[in-house]
Queue: 3 jobs
Job 1
Amino acid sequence: MRLLQIKDSGEFNLVEYVGINIPRYAILSHTWGADNEEVIFRDLVDGVGKDKTGYRKLNFCAKQATSDGLQFFWVDTCCIDKSSSAELQEAINSMFQWYHKADKCYAYLSDVSFTGTDPSTQRAWRQSFQDSRWFTRGWTLQELLAPTSVEFFSTEGKYLGNKASLLQEIHAITRITHKALQGDPLHQFSIDTRLSWAEKRETKRAEDKAYALLGIFGVYIPLIYGEGENNAFRRLHEEIARTSKGPVKQEASTQIRRDQLDIVKGIEGVPEG
């Protein structure tokens, strides 16, 4: 796992840890801007990228982690060398656990602005919170559910609340059950229920709609970009069936989307592992 280590100066640099001796760290949940706006792995290696819009998210995360007594943090844009297919595969298959094991998860909402001093008494930001793009993306589903706590921040870096204090609002936006948001084990929820949480979420790459659900179901599959959304969901379904106890009944489940009904057919009958 590659992390960003915060120096005494406030600057940060990449460090890599292998095995179980990984230090306490914070992790960032966010939505990507344009590709040329995000700071990537190569930028940090080359010592460039500070002029990119995405660098402000790194600065925010470094400052917040320092405030919380943490020396390390992780950001998906630059802590993964995406030019390595092996590293990308390992990261996607490990990401749910990385979010789960983080000491702090900061959800940075770039489209929510709040300039007040007390979010509990200010309502102006709540509509933009409800409409935030963060709640529409495929990858942020696991970033909401995997950590014990998620802390939400405005684009100015102002604290808005956490997954507990904003429970009712998050439930109303996502329709995810309170128990799942409060940390009940995900395998306790039916497969159809978990699929429904992702129903209206989108990803930049079609296959990621399926890959973003790996941690939600506790399964692992090879990444095959170019296989298409339907094939990715078919392989996801097959792995869910393979790792579950007992046979799969051939019954139609609740739709994710109409064009995926044949892919998820029978999932409801898979007993939970």
Note: The beta strands are 2-6, 12-16, 26-29, 72-74, 104-108, 151-153, 159-162.
Job 2
Amino acid sequence: MRNRIALLAFAAVVALCAAAAARAAGVTVNATVTGGSTLAVSSLNTPSFPVTLNGDDQTATYQAQLQIVDARGLATGGGWNLSITSTQYSDGAGHTLPANASTVTGVTAGCHSATSTCALPTNSASNSNVALPVSPTTTKILNAATGTGLGRIDVNVNASVAVPANTIAATYTSTLTFAIAAGP
């Protein structure tokens, strides 16, 4: 009798498992990821530098911090170019620093790790010891090859400014303009 009850219990368990297996179904989930339209550059800081005249020519340095967002999601045909131009340093009272006073000394890029993974730009632009042009002339300082430069990318542009010894003491201002354009 015990064997018969155990056998019936075993058969019931097998039947339940078979019934449960017979009711299982695989479900395919499709994800459609659509690229956005954003390709933008923005400034993250307001760089400045102090110089105390001492009778000698001097060189000051600063760093412009930018953020590039490429949310287009293009694996082929994407890429971008970052260019820069500037205005000549002027105090607004007729005094200027030389038009060729500024030099881009280096550019670095990294993922904005706080909120984004990224595909770092594969750069082929010269961006070390490049004369910073005065508007309307521009120069390319960073680019992303096809399939790179995607996501949110922080960029540091290091620059130096030559301040001649005969500079009039004043507050001088120059405006940097960064432009980003699609294309490798």
Note: The chain has a mean pLDDT of 88.
Job 3
Amino acid sequence: MIPLPSYSQIAELIKKGATLEAQEQIMKLREAALELQEENLSLREEIKKLREERDLANNLEFAEEVYWLLKNGERTGPYCPSCYDQHHKLTRLHNGKTRMADTKWLCLICQNTFD
């Protein structure tokens, strides 16, 4: 980042009658302020995402070889451990019990089965 002018530098330019140069310095400040606003927004979004991931991890229970989400003291799920461990995505498992298979749960995303 280039050094930014201070208020006193801009005021001095105006006193000298160098209004064009003062305007240029003000434009530098405006550009820097916009960059900082964009960076601030990006950092806020990243913090929000990290907090959501932390909260999710704190509310997951690994039992019966799958993940369960704890909400208000109740267990929901089950969720695929492969999808969560590899991609941090909660993928609900489906009933795998069919006439052809004797699998307890099936993930339709990664195709893994869990007994």
Note: The chain has three helices and six strands.
